[in-house]
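[STRUCTURE TOKENS]
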Amino acid sequence: MSTSSSTSRQLRWLCACYFFFFSILGTMVPYLGVFFENRGFNPQEIGFLLAILMATRIVAPNVWAKVADRTGMRAELIKMGAGAAALAYLSFFYHGGFVYMALSLALYTFFWNAILAQLEVITLETLGENASRYGQIRSWGSVGYICLVVGAGFAIGQWGTEVLPYIGFSLFIGMLASALPLPANRLVRDTSQVRPPLQWNRAIIWFLLSAMLLQMSAGPFYGFFVLYLKQAGYSESSAGIFVALGAMAEIVMFMFAPRLLGRYGVNTLLIVSIGMTCLRWLLVAFGVDSVLWLGFSQLLHAFTFGLTHAASIQFVHRHFDASHRSQGQALYASLSFGVGGALGTWICGYIWGDGSGAVWSWVFAAGCAFSAMLAVFFIPRDKPGVAAHAA
């Protein structure tokens, strides 16, 4: 088999891995709040449980990244993580109490959250000089997210929230099946040389702070968006359509991201995207009764995640050398989606209260996004054209 055909085959399996990974996200994140509510948990308990989903991203990616960077066993760790997550997810079927559910979430998300950082590194290293094609590969994750966020919404409306574990387990099996064909292209290292320590600098520190604050702002979206729409009179299926609208906008943005990165650079695009995110949360807070404004706010997901993530992945890939790339992606995932997501979800659970503080949770989100935008101004500016072609 030629190198080009082998690379194309690997990229197809990576597309499938992204599809199933974000299909799981599209099933779990929008509907876990409703699922836990129907199992009898109160808003504070729901906020804590959903924070666990984010908090395992603090530990898991960094633990696995150290193994991956030292051994080069990235594909093997994806397969191991997918298999272990599928087995651990079986515990989710049992109707346990608060402590049991917290342990169940911590167990299966520990393995699930360890997959993405390795997937990102393998994808970018497989693309090599064609790293600008990352958005095309990653967009399959958005396709999976759309399919399941809409499909799960209709399934819950038809059969109730207890259908969620069955959908989730099927997707975990799909993730495992997609990961198994990935070749074990272990990166060979010169063991006679001492591995240099990770070099921290001003750009990395301010970038990670901004990423953490941005994901804090997404706390109410991750944990309470569907509940918020239900409170405003929308159905689960309608909520699923609104979430899918955002994912569709994200796919479109991934198509234009390489061109925008090449023309404007990471810093400018992060400032614009995070500013749009601040506007988005204010629209959700005060425009939820308008289908038009709510729909427009979801279109801004193209900036909140699509453009921001594409720029961030390129930033990390450029600022960490080959011996620290797994660690770099893990730091980005753990501090942003992990620390930021967990804090945002947990805090919003308390702001939410009995539902009377729902609007203020989105105002809090807008404040976090504004702070994230300010942090970007302290990142030394990059040169347009570099980010899009970094290998």
DSSP finds 15 helices and no strands in the chain. Residues 3-185+199-389 form a domain with the Growth Hormone; Chain: A; fold (CATH 1.20.1250.20). Residues 384-391 have pLDDT under 50 and may be disordered. The radius of gyration is 20 Å.
